[in-house]
Write a structure and sequence with these properties.
Length: 329
């Protein structure tokens, strides 16, 4: 039985499970996120908050809210693992994930579900959003279709489907194994790449979620070297999809160059390989070719020599194109 008691609801109740990963949420807008779910014009079938081993009063906060299921991890495992836990517990055909410091506009569930239900071939529906500050004041419009020279965009067809701005068909999410909890950053991009295919994504060009930018977003707590290692793992994982001489292959060289430049600045981690073999025995992919090293030399010699715009802890991630600051627990 779903936690939401439909007999007590004056709104229609949808077969949607909302999963909110939380870590020290009392000071990170968790209550506002939950309130934005409860204020939807279409009520969620269930709301699941997965507490990733918080050290504050997150448990008491959540358990005081009616009809919200609270689950706690025994140890901190990161946002990807928390989302996967919520997805495993979900009892409905559709999944929506909301980060603890993000918000939904009141019609988010109603608008996205109406589209996904009418398109059985689709895996997900995603929408545009707003970037907002700590006071929920709009900073800029964030369009969810992007064309940039990075495999983070090319391998998902330009669909910058944000975690808090997407509604997933659960069978499709389960089929690819959910989020990769081994990635310390960009686990959301990795999921979308694995889900992507012609006709599987539907873009709704309306701003129906709000992504909050502030000093305590989760990825700001990830040490730079750990974040760089996450980048390397991400690029390694998807290198085989980027054949030489293709836009994806060129983008991979460019992405490795940015990684290499940031790695040089932040400190030594395992360097990227000069050549990575693809799944085809006769093919090689120049993940750090002369072209890539030329890019890194250009980056290192740029006027913004501190490379703050390339390092993972800043708001603007050069490989991503979206101001993501939410990875990790």
């Amino acid at each position: 039985m779903l936690p939401i008691d439909a007999s007590k609801e004056t709104r229609p109740v949808a077969q949607i499970s909302v999963v909110i990963p939380a870590y020290n949420g009392t000071s990170r807008y968790l209550k506002e996120a939950i309130d934005s779910v409860r204020a939807q014009t279409l009520a969620a079938g269930e709301i699941i908050v997965v507490d990733d081993a918080s050290t504050d009063g997150t448990g008491a906060l959540v358990q005081a809210i009616p009809q919200v299921r609270y689950v706690r991890h025994p140890q901190n495992s990161g946002q990807a693992a928390a989302r996967n836990t919520g997805a495993r517990l979900a009892q409905t055909p559709y999944l929506a994930f909301l980060d603890q410091d993000d918000l939904w506009e009141p019609t988010f569930l109603e608008a996205t579900l109406g589209i996904l239900e009418s398109a059985p071939q689709a895996t997900l529906v995603h929408c545009d959003g707003y970037q907002v500050n700590e006071r929920n004041e709009i900073l800029e419009y964030d369009a969810a279709m992007k064309q940039q020279r990075s495999i983070t965009q090319l391998l998902r067809g330009g669909h910058d489907a944000a975690t808090s701005g997407s509604l997933f068909r659960k069978t499709c999410f389960d089929a690819v194994g959910g989020y990769d909890a081994a990635l310390s950053i960009w686990e959301d991009i990795d999921l979308i790449i694995r889900l992507y295919g012609p006709g599987r994504f539907i873009h709704l060009p309306k701003p129906l979620y709000r992504h909050r930018l502030y000093g305590h977003n989760a990825s700001r707590n990830i040490p730079s070297l750990r974040a760089l290692d996450g980048r390397r793992r991400f690029l390694d994982k998807h290198a085989a999809s980027c054949r030489p001489g293709t836009p994806e292959g060129d983008a991979l060289s460019h992405d490795w160059a940015i990684y290499y430049a940031a790695n040089t600045t932040c400190g030594p981690t395992r360097p990227p390989p000069l050549v990575r073999r693809s799944s085809q025995p006769s093919a090689t992919i120049p993940t750090m070719s002369k072209h890539g090293r030329a890019w890194s030399d250009r980056i290192l010699s740029s006027p913004r020599s501190d490379l703050s715009w390339h390092t993972p802890s800043t708001q603007s991630h050069a490989l991503d194109g979206r101001r993501r600051n939410k990875t990790g627990g």
